[in-house]
Amino acid sequence: MVLKAVLLDFNGLIINDEAIHERIIEELLLEENLRPNPQDLEECCLGRSDAACLSDLLARQGRVVSAAYLEKLLNQKAARYLEVLSGLNPLPLYPGLDDLIYQIRAAQLKLAIVSGARRSEIETVLSLVHWGEHVGLIISADDLAPGVSKPAPDGYLLAIERLNQQFNDLALRPADCLAIEDSFAGIEAAKRAGVPVLGVAHTYPYQMIHRRATWVVDHLYELSLDWLTPYYNLADHKLS
């Protein structure tokens, strides 16, 4: 195998916005006369889509969650998130992104985002960064069936399928990709899809990420794709 594509998570990996999401979700729960529980927020939301997060939070507090009710809350949350983003200058992006994108482009790798965020949120952020045009594919919550979220592998598998559709001669396999994730759910999703995954200790301590990911770094700016070349070449040699 050979490294052909890098698949990036979004929230907590590209943009440091977990606190923003948490605050908006807490506001929504309070408006629904429900009391936010920090443990529930961590268990239900980190690394998962808004739909999965809100569905589980509401169910834990005894609410019957109809599709219409959930869609109303999701639209409210998305509108508030975009409103908050519009007031941020600069955006809270993680250090090291510019260099990572440069490395990906220099190595002529395909670049995709695989996230549980809504497409509108991802596209808004990408429109505000100079490297956004280099993202060749977005797989968002809008591309998956309702209720499907990491740690399910669907997003990663769909990204590989669509990259192969875009590039007929790519012959991309999960083992030819590198996923970069910050959450337990995201790491598990990549692993279930058969994608080697580099964990970044943005959300959880290094030691906890190290137990789950193929590789781990504390910060994005520590990552050099050259480190990984021997792994992909060695794996290819073992398969031959």
Relevant terms:
2 domains; 240 residues; Rossmann fold; 46% helix; 10% strand
CATH fold naming of the largest domain: Rossmann fold
- Treating each run of at least 4 consecutive H or I residues as one helix, how many helices? 10
Radius of gyration: 18 Å
Write the H/E string, N to C: EHHHHHEHEHEHEHEH
Q: Which CATH class of the largest domain? A: Alpha Beta
Structure in words:
There is one protein chain. With about 240 residues, this protein is an alpha/beta fold. It has ten helices and six strands; from the N terminus they run βαααααβαβαβαβαβα. It has a six-stranded parallel β-sheet. About 40% of the residues are buried.
Helices and strands, with pairings:
Blueprint: E1 5-8, H1 18-31, H2 38-45, H3 50-60, H4 67-86, H5 97-106, E2 110-114, H6 119-127, E3 137-139, H7 154-166, E4 177-181, H8 184-192, E5 197-200, H9 206-210, E6 215-217, H10 229-239
Parallel strand pairs: 1-2, 1-4, 2-3, 4-5, 5-6
TL;DR of this structure?
The protein has 240 residues and is an alpha/beta fold. It is built from ten helices and six strands, in the order βαααααβαβαβαβαβα.
